What does this fold into?
Amino acid sequence: MLNPTNFQSQAYESIKELILTAKLIPGQKISEKELEQRLTIGRTPIREAIIRLRREALIHVVPQSGTYISKISIKQIEEARFVRETLEKEVFVAACQAVTEEQLKELEKLVILQRTYAQLKDEIEFFQLDEAFHQLIYKIADKENVWNWLQTINLPLNRFRFLRLEVEELSWEIILRDHEEILVTLKEKDQAKIALLVGQHIDVIDNDLIFVEKAFPDYFTE
It folds into this structure.
């Protein structure tokens, strides 16, 4: 049987996933009762989860109006992109020096799986495998605490990245090719090239944001 803490964690993770995958739409008004019915979780864990998500700016309350899913801040996307690009160049260079044959095989499996789910057009699995690929490289570089620290900063960026998968003009193939090239470069242990590739991989966010904002104009805020 789940204890109250586990129910709170379950409610938090469930609502957070609904927000990150835009099943709860940016700007949408929500209520504890609706979430309770949707998730079949009690009111108290839902309330605690909402408090936590408010701290992370994923939910906000408008006095005399109600509780809403926060829109996605373009400024926070750009700031998260800056932080991630700056850090990941160093992290990937460190991974390039430390990576083992076994770890290269793990990365290769992730890329193969990601291509499989791309063919199936499974956005959630594709996104999760994308995250797993980057997280494993942080682990290889012995920077797992940095990855964990980044997760809150990455929330607006991750919401945007998921929406990007829903925009027809933006191919998933670009992401796959980047990961495949990064994998080859890790095998070659080419530190200069890996830093260049990481910069290019993350810089496409600026161009992609134009298309995503055009497709979902009501989801974003300056």
